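OP here, attaching both records as promised.
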Amino acid sequence: MSYPGMKVKTPIKAKVILFLSFLIPFVFVFIYVWNTSTDLVGSDDMYLIKGGFIESYLKGTMTFDDLWRPIHVSRMLGYNLMQIANIRLSSMNSQILVFLTPFFMLASAILIYREYRKSLILECSSEFIAATFLVLTLIIFNIIQWEGLQSDCGLLYQSSMPFFIASFIYLELFLLRGDRKYLPAVFILMPLAMLVFNGRLYISFIPTLCSIFMCYLLNYRSNLTKDFWLRALLIGLFIAVTATLYLWGINFKENTSYNLSEVFTHPLEVSEFLLAAFASSVVGVDAFFACTYISFDTMLIIGLIIVILYVFALALFFRSRMYERTYLPLFLILQTFFYLGFITIGRFELGKGYGMASRYTCVSIYGLAAMVWIFMFILAHHKKPKALLKGAIFTGFLIIFSGHFLTSIAVWNVRPERKAYFEKGYDIAFRVDTATPEELSHFLAEPEQVRDSLLLLRKYKLNAYREKSAKE
């Protein structure tokens, strides 16, 4: 479906405003990354070094199976290839991969803006659309997601998002809008997202697509054509084949910690974990520890409020028929729901407070951005919204942005301590022969895996050892 004005040339003033809407949050995140990250290998990468594809590559015995082999149930082909390029080009300077992270976030933001503009162009000027998009970029680039911004393995969370967003956009254009010229893009982007740059989003992508497909069927059940069903069959088969390729050879019994019986026997703990995860996308774990007046019970209340806001936003999405212009906000919200749901099933036994981990906000902040997007659409669509509706929307804005502001201050204040903690790893790495298991646990809970991996890096003068070898 096309809309008048969608291809109107953007005025210079709007371009300047849009540039600033991207630049200001992007620079803030990049400064944080620059000042916090180190070039020391991340903890999760220890599994990829000794006994992983990096050892095979260094010894000249690497095959495609080494790159394709999953860690638990995650295939990391794209990340593995980036690590190989990093080894060849910079002797495995991990900071280079960390610096790529904000640019993947920027790609996601640009893709979202294209749909954001399309959804508002009938009611709003280009200048207004560009200016209000700052509200979304402040969420997307927020340092509340610090765990995904400080090490090379954090790139797993960020690099996948633009591929999944792009896959959905072109899938919607082909399947739901009937634009066949976008089919080649679907056939390219879908495998890239699911098989190459899947990160941690593979667990939520297909359930999200199925849910949106069902919503579409309910919305247009009386107007579905034979051509639509043929497109749906084609895409369904293609997704099934792609998913089969991904899952082929993975032993779920050995490589997953999902225990559904535990979920059903501890429903209260599961609910608390999930609410804490929703809350942490607004009030991050650093703010939780920094503010004495924020208790875990407070976080649960905040999580419940966020869930209510999501339900409210979804009701507005369908009631306003926003889906006639784009389904992307629904995709981002449902992706957040399914992702946090699967994480809860797999991780809640680590403790209900573990749901506040910052790494999960790398996904959930996109759900928040989609919620705010829906609110902006409603305010633009209704020139004179009712006082109750307007009050509820601005209350949501106040909760989200006050929480992010508080968390940003807390994350920035703890930055020097976090930097010192990472740099402590250098001393351990250069004493790897004599380092105690307790010291090696600084990297990973499996000290011998750390020792063997660091020894391998030292042997080939990679990562932290490259500078020392250059001076010798």
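Record two, same layout:
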Amino acid sequence: MKPQSLTGRVVFQYFYDVGGDIMLERLPKGKLNVIERQLPRGARVLAPKYEEAELQPVEVDLGFINFNRRKATVKGKIFPIGVIGIYITVEFRDEKPDALIELVGLNEGLIKVEGKEMEFDEIPLKLFGELKNKIKSAIVYPYPAFERPEIYTLIILTRSDPELRATDFLKKFKKQTAGILRGERDWRSLSDKEAEDAVKLYLSYSEDDIVIVDWYSAIISGAVEYTDKLVRMIELARIQLLELKTYDRLLDERIERAYGSLRTAFTGPSMGVAWRSRQYRELSRTASELAELRIEVMDYVGDLRNILKFTGEWYLGKLYRVASERFRISDWLGLVDKKLNQLQELYAMAMERVDVHRATSLEFLMMFLIVAIVVLEIIMVVKGL
């Protein structure tokens, strides 16, 4: 039996939150090697309408790097939502499945670059830092950046010999497929249950193409004509996951800070003049921040819930749902919703306390005016006026 050989490319994707939105019109394009793409006339547009989802990126050529006797091309994508993607692509030709598994696992350890050993993750991190520094003038509405990137690997197969059908990945070579998806060199020892879990979420339009979406990586085989469109849908789901994690962390920080402010307010003195009270100013600022953050997150979450409206083709919508299920987007949405409700409760508590301060201040003013009037009348009587 002829041994299986595979040809294609592995794309290591790193998505970083920059800590703010990015105004694309402010990008210093003179400092960037921007990749211009134009659709051929009459081409069928299958891709989601990124301009409506505010995710249409600017692509940047970042050159190439050599490591472990392989050459990799590198590009970046700048998304207005506040994300920079670094893509490291390695081509492979007529590789055996075991060799492909080794390639897929490159980003999990040390590699040799220009004779020096370094962690693979250091390469995209350095490139991200350089690119972010170049576009820092375009970053607006800053917030503390989410430091951990979302990492994903795409295994795109353009040719196989003997030719693989969609069912071969799911049945005949199920454990090997799971090994490629998980970067598991000892794929033969995988349990049937684990192998089944790795390949359970897939999409196949014909008998010759398939997309299998796992948590850490995805395999795309046979869909040569519209591979880029499939990649962009998985990319969209991964970016959403990053932003949901970012907002989840921001909500945690704001909620903790709000609890501190409210704790101080409720344990401190209840009397005082509002405009001279540090406690009142802190409460007002907290209430304002909570309201602003809640509106911002609700707006973004609303866009996430309506994202399927922005797909131009039903098959891509199905792929988005498969990717969302694998990445547990709905769970993260539920978690953010829960914290938004928490935020609303804290806002109501803060405003209630602000109203108490205002009422106390008004009572003080009324008492002061009454005393002032009485004193004036006494003075007038004493002076015989």
